[in-house]
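@channel sequence for tomorrow's demo:
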Amino acid sequence: MKTGIFQAYLGIFAIMARENLHKSLEVYYEQVDSCPLRDRQFNFFEFVYVLSGKGSHSINGNRLPFKSGDLFLITPTDSHTFDLENMCEFMVIRFAPGYVKAYSWQSIDHIECLLYYASHLSGSILKNVEDKRMVASIMDGIRHAVEHDNIYNEDLICHFVNAVIVIAARNISVIKPENISPHADLRTLSILDYIQENIREPDRLKIATIAKEFGLSPTYLGSYFRKQCNEPIQQYISSYRIRQIEHRLRFSDRRIHEIADEFGFADESHINKFFKRHKGMSLKSYRKIQSSGPM
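structure tokens (generated this afternoon):
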């Protein structure tokens, strides 16, 4: 049930059930005590900022608690659901990929790539304490602009939204691969994004396939990636796949054979061999340790 909902979509009104964006930017305030739609997927980016309330957020099969002050970024490739424990207030910002491309960012020429990287994260994307305070203030400003029909409100909201996008990108960039060069170029980020996007499709992560995708020779791709990320590309792929499997074991209730199938392994035996080679234990043992407390 929705109560006191106010939706202002910069000049248009829309129904929550729709999955397509009708303008390049839509912003609204929402007060709800239940999530009417489940496992939604969109063709746009969506920021969801928690003004008040608590519950859990499930994204791509992983479930984590949320609280006031959390900021979630849902990308066009994500499937997500909110489960609310009580009445919650949200500010929701939706924008098309073209909105990001159309704006002239002064110092971030790969901002769209950074935003897509959020699809491989769970939980609030705000990591910096000062940024949390800044976003809280910006969201107050957005809510005031949405609720009061003043002159130049549309321009003001766009500036607020752009500030949130930059702050989000700044926080996401902090959690890029830890070994990546601080001067990594756009192609490196695109390769990382390709690997992360296709982590469940082993055939698309063969070196020859990746090299062809980016117009490089397999030999050059290997040396280029090592120089930019300070580790072999195969090592990065394995490490990233391990992190995703760990995430499934910790934050989802999927069975081992379901996880094996999701990540392209032939069966439980194959995924256990792979996991044990990197973590020294079976998936079942890892899940048991995680459920009983910190490792």
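heads up for whoever presents: The chain has a mean pLDDT of 83.
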